[in-house]
Structure prediction request, 380 residues.
Amino acid sequence: MIRHLFRAALAAVLLAAGAAGAQEPIRIGSVLSLTGPAAFLGDPELKTLQMLVEKLNAEGGVLGRKYQLVHYDDGSDASKANAFAKRLIEQDRVDFMVGGTTTGATMAMVPLVEKAGVPFISMAGGVAIVEPVKKWVFKTPHTDRMAAEKVFEDMKKRGITRVGLLSETSGFGQSGRKETQAAAQRLGITLAGDETYGPKDTDMTAQLTKLRAAPGIQALFVFGLGQGPAIVTKNVQQLAIKLPLYHAHGVASDEFIRLAGAAAEGVRLPAAALIVAKQLPAADPQKPVVMAYDKAYRERFKEDVSTFGGHAWDGLMILHEAIRRAGSADREKVRDAIEATRNHMGTGGLVNFSATDHLGLDLSAFRMVEIRNGDWVLAN
Prediction:
């Protein structure tokens, strides 16, 4: 009798343990730049991830399990990103990763996730993140190559063929400079000047003075993120440089307008549709997606949206749908399901991943925008 009772009790304990195990949360790891030069990118990314985790959990999570977000701040320092990624994988034992605010931080984490076999969706812009294709790494934002191509496409429509390039020495800026140089050769653009600045520099008038003096220069193109491009924009105004000013998509946030102030008037850049959501035609298939995110974010945080938060939304939604389709939280199965993502309309555009394309966006996903009267508008 005692033996039967013991067995019954043991069975009950094991059953309870099994049930508890089935309810273990799916852990999502994220390393973001919440402080430092890239903070205005990382802040909306974290807020979006937190908001979406809350939303998905309120709807029941996935596979009967809730999500748990584990995140760290790399301070816009790639070496710290590497250390935190190691902690997420080895100590926090996360199942998947969505994060990497900057290209430098993402590339510092790539070898770790590749070795550990952790599906990783980055929110950074550099094309090097997905070229060459890496088995476990995907990304949501448009690439620096696409930004250069979109800008040069717009310049040529305006008769601009001689350009001064000013790029940041960060991972994003370095990759952007390389891609801009290559795109210029392909598209018949001459780089009349080519200067760089550091991500912590507080004055770029010396570089701009050199560019202004470049023979036949018709426009300026700035490739950077964070506060640097805003400083450049103010310096352009201070030097009374009247050339058309273009930026890459690393400044697609209302924070850039706030930092640059009146100097931002007339600036053009390629950006995701999210930043001009209300201006999209009613028939645009992306409008319901960007308007839904815009509404949810504004109601939750009482502040304007940025495309960077949209990258986070897209990353976690792609992961969530892949887990659901896979019917499992097994890393290999989920990785395969992410790669099989087709016709996913996100805030960044229509995503079609494949074995040879871990970005899944084409140039049509970019909208050319301009700053007018302190706001974003679709460029003519």
